[in-house]
Amino acid sequence: MAAPSVATTHDETTTDNARPGGARLLTRARVEKILGPISDGKVDELLEALEAALTKHRQAMRTHSFQIVRLQNQIQELQNAKSRQQDDRQHVLDELLRSRQEIAYLKGRLAGLTVEFHSTAANNQDRGQHDSSGQTWHQDSWAEPSLDAKHGASPQSEVGSLRDGAVEASHAPGLMADHILNKLRPRLVETLARHLVKGTT
Length: 201
Prior knowledge:
Residues 1-21, 123-165 are annotated as: Disordered. Residues 43-95 form a coiled coil. Keywords: Coiled coil. This protein is mainly alpha-helical. It has one domain. Helix content is 89%, strand content 0%. It has helices at 2-17, 28-35, 40-142, 147-151, 155-200. Helix 3 packs antiparallel against helix 5 (155-200). The two termini are 77 Å apart.
Protein backbone atom coordinates (compact mmCIF):
# COMPACT_ATOMS: atom_id res chain seq x y z
CA MET A 1 0.00 0.00 0.00
CA ALA A 2 2.96 2.32 0.48
CA ALA A 3 3.98 2.23 -3.18
CA PRO A 4 0.67 3.66 -4.52
CA SER A 5 0.86 6.41 -1.94
CA VAL A 6 4.34 7.49 -3.19
CA ALA A 7 3.23 7.34 -6.80
CA THR A 8 0.19 9.44 -6.02
CA THR A 9 2.32 11.99 -4.20
CA HIS A 10 4.71 12.20 -7.18
CA ASP A 11 1.84 12.65 -9.62
CA GLU A 12 0.23 15.35 -7.52
CA THR A 13 3.53 17.19 -7.17
CA THR A 14 4.08 17.14 -10.91
CA THR A 15 0.54 18.33 -11.56
CA ASP A 16 0.58 21.06 -8.94
CA ASN A 17 3.94 22.44 -10.03
CA ALA A 18 3.07 22.51 -13.74
CA ARG A 19 2.18 25.94 -15.12
CA PRO A 20 1.34 27.16 -18.62
CA GLY A 21 4.47 27.85 -20.63
CA GLY A 22 6.65 25.63 -18.41
CA ALA A 23 6.68 28.07 -15.44
CA ARG A 24 6.68 26.64 -11.89
CA LEU A 25 5.72 28.28 -8.61
CA LEU A 26 8.08 27.16 -5.82
CA THR A 27 6.89 27.56 -2.22
CA ARG A 28 8.01 26.04 1.08
CA ALA A 29 4.89 23.87 1.16
CA ARG A 30 5.69 22.42 -2.24
CA VAL A 31 9.35 21.89 -1.31
CA GLU A 32 8.30 20.03 1.88
CA LYS A 33 5.81 18.07 -0.17
CA ILE A 34 8.63 16.94 -2.47
CA LEU A 35 11.50 16.60 0.02
CA GLY A 36 9.61 16.08 3.24
CA PRO A 37 9.77 18.20 6.38
CA ILE A 38 12.90 20.36 6.41
CA SER A 39 14.29 23.01 8.70
CA ASP A 40 14.32 26.74 8.04
CA GLY A 41 18.07 26.67 7.50
CA LYS A 42 17.74 24.02 4.83
CA VAL A 43 15.08 26.03 3.04
CA ASP A 44 17.31 29.12 3.09
CA GLU A 45 20.19 27.12 1.63
CA LEU A 46 17.98 25.82 -1.16
CA LEU A 47 16.66 29.29 -1.94
CA GLU A 48 20.19 30.72 -2.04
CA ALA A 49 21.29 27.93 -4.35
CA LEU A 50 18.32 28.58 -6.63
CA GLU A 51 18.98 32.32 -6.64
CA ALA A 52 22.63 31.73 -7.50
CA ALA A 53 21.64 29.40 -10.34
CA LEU A 54 19.13 31.93 -11.67
CA THR A 55 21.68 34.74 -11.46
CA LYS A 56 24.24 32.67 -13.33
CA HIS A 57 21.65 31.83 -15.97
CA ARG A 58 20.73 35.49 -16.43
CA GLN A 59 24.39 36.45 -16.77
CA ALA A 60 24.92 33.74 -19.36
CA MET A 61 21.88 34.95 -21.30
CA ARG A 62 23.15 38.54 -21.16
CA THR A 63 26.60 37.46 -22.34
CA HIS A 64 25.09 35.51 -25.21
CA SER A 65 22.99 38.52 -26.16
CA PHE A 66 26.07 40.75 -26.26
CA GLN A 67 27.90 38.19 -28.37
CA ILE A 68 25.01 38.00 -30.81
CA VAL A 69 24.90 41.79 -31.14
CA ARG A 70 28.67 41.92 -31.66
CA LEU A 71 28.50 39.25 -34.35
CA GLN A 72 25.71 41.13 -36.08
CA ASN A 73 27.81 44.31 -36.04
CA GLN A 74 30.80 42.45 -37.45
CA ILE A 75 28.68 41.00 -40.23
CA GLN A 76 27.36 44.47 -41.05
CA GLU A 77 30.89 45.89 -41.12
CA LEU A 78 32.03 43.12 -43.46
CA GLN A 79 29.10 43.81 -45.76
CA ASN A 80 29.89 47.54 -45.74
CA ALA A 81 33.57 46.85 -46.46
CA LYS A 82 32.64 44.60 -49.35
CA SER A 83 30.34 47.27 -50.73
CA ARG A 84 33.11 49.88 -50.46
CA GLN A 85 35.54 47.56 -52.23
CA GLN A 86 33.08 47.10 -55.06
CA ASP A 87 32.60 50.87 -55.31
CA ASP A 88 36.38 51.44 -55.31
CA ARG A 89 36.88 48.75 -57.94
CA GLN A 90 34.23 50.33 -60.14
CA HIS A 91 35.81 53.75 -59.62
CA VAL A 92 39.20 52.41 -60.72
CA LEU A 93 37.65 50.82 -63.81
CA ASP A 94 35.91 54.09 -64.66
CA GLU A 95 39.18 56.00 -64.23
CA LEU A 96 41.01 53.55 -66.49
CA LEU A 97 38.30 53.75 -69.13
CA ARG A 98 38.27 57.55 -69.03
CA SER A 99 42.07 57.69 -69.26
CA ARG A 100 42.07 55.34 -72.23
CA GLN A 101 39.46 57.48 -73.95
CA GLU A 102 41.50 60.61 -73.28
CA ILE A 103 44.67 58.95 -74.60
CA ALA A 104 42.86 57.73 -77.72
CA TYR A 105 41.45 61.22 -78.30
CA LEU A 106 44.87 62.84 -77.84
CA LYS A 107 46.50 60.35 -80.17
CA GLY A 108 43.90 61.14 -82.80
CA ARG A 109 44.43 64.86 -82.38
CA LEU A 110 48.20 64.44 -82.57
CA ALA A 111 47.88 62.34 -85.71
CA GLY A 112 45.72 65.02 -87.29
CA LEU A 113 48.16 67.75 -86.32
CA THR A 114 51.04 65.69 -87.72
CA VAL A 115 49.30 65.29 -91.07
CA GLU A 116 48.42 68.97 -91.12
CA PHE A 117 51.99 69.95 -90.27
CA HIS A 118 53.52 67.77 -92.99
CA SER A 119 51.02 69.11 -95.51
CA THR A 120 51.85 72.69 -94.57
CA ALA A 121 55.58 71.97 -94.67
CA ALA A 122 55.25 70.43 -98.14
CA ASN A 123 53.28 73.43 -99.41
CA ASN A 124 55.85 75.82 -97.99
CA GLN A 125 58.65 73.80 -99.58
CA ASP A 126 57.00 73.91 -103.01
CA ARG A 127 56.30 77.61 -102.63
CA GLY A 128 59.91 78.26 -101.61
CA GLN A 129 61.23 76.38 -104.62
CA HIS A 130 58.91 78.30 -106.95
CA ASP A 131 59.85 81.66 -105.47
CA SER A 132 63.57 80.90 -105.53
CA SER A 133 63.48 79.76 -109.18
CA GLY A 134 61.55 82.88 -110.19
CA GLN A 135 63.94 85.10 -108.30
CA THR A 136 66.98 83.44 -109.95
CA TRP A 137 65.50 83.91 -113.43
CA HIS A 138 64.72 87.55 -112.70
CA GLN A 139 68.23 88.26 -111.44
CA ASP A 140 69.89 86.51 -114.39
CA SER A 141 67.72 88.35 -116.89
CA TRP A 142 67.88 91.92 -115.60
CA ALA A 143 70.68 92.55 -113.14
CA GLU A 144 73.49 91.13 -111.09
CA PRO A 145 72.54 89.89 -107.64
CA SER A 146 73.26 92.24 -104.79
CA LEU A 147 75.93 91.60 -102.19
CA ASP A 148 73.32 90.47 -99.66
CA ALA A 149 71.78 88.03 -102.13
CA LYS A 150 75.20 86.51 -102.93
CA HIS A 151 75.90 85.90 -99.28
CA GLY A 152 72.32 84.72 -98.46
CA ALA A 153 71.17 81.15 -97.98
CA SER A 154 70.76 79.07 -101.12
CA PRO A 155 67.42 77.43 -102.00
CA GLN A 156 68.95 74.02 -101.31
CA SER A 157 69.88 75.05 -97.80
CA GLU A 158 66.38 76.43 -97.24
CA VAL A 159 64.86 73.16 -98.46
CA GLY A 160 67.21 71.21 -96.20
CA SER A 161 66.23 73.38 -93.26
CA LEU A 162 62.54 72.79 -93.92
CA ARG A 163 63.17 69.05 -94.25
CA ASP A 164 65.06 68.96 -90.97
CA GLY A 165 62.26 70.87 -89.28
CA ALA A 166 59.71 68.42 -90.63
CA VAL A 167 61.72 65.46 -89.32
CA GLU A 168 62.00 67.03 -85.88
CA ALA A 169 58.29 67.84 -85.87
CA SER A 170 57.45 64.23 -86.79
CA HIS A 171 58.89 63.17 -83.43
CA ALA A 172 56.98 65.84 -81.52
CA PRO A 173 53.62 63.95 -81.33
CA GLY A 174 55.32 60.94 -79.77
CA LEU A 175 57.10 63.10 -77.23
CA MET A 176 53.86 64.92 -76.44
CA ALA A 177 52.03 61.60 -76.00
CA ASP A 178 54.74 60.39 -73.63
CA HIS A 179 54.46 63.62 -71.68
CA ILE A 180 50.69 63.23 -71.35
CA LEU A 181 51.03 59.58 -70.28
CA ASN A 182 53.61 60.56 -67.66
CA LYS A 183 51.17 63.12 -66.27
CA LEU A 184 48.33 60.58 -66.13
CA ARG A 185 50.44 57.73 -64.70
CA PRO A 186 50.72 59.09 -61.08
CA ARG A 187 46.98 59.48 -60.80
CA LEU A 188 46.36 55.94 -62.04
CA VAL A 189 49.04 54.52 -59.75
CA GLU A 190 47.61 56.40 -56.77
CA THR A 191 44.09 55.13 -57.50
CA LEU A 192 45.28 51.53 -57.86
CA ALA A 193 47.38 51.75 -54.69
CA ARG A 194 44.44 53.11 -52.71
CA HIS A 195 42.25 50.30 -54.00
CA LEU A 196 44.84 47.65 -53.06
CA VAL A 197 45.28 49.08 -49.56
CA LYS A 198 41.55 49.05 -48.95
CA GLY A 199 41.33 45.52 -50.30
CA THR A 200 43.82 44.24 -47.72
CA THR A 201 42.18 45.94 -44.71
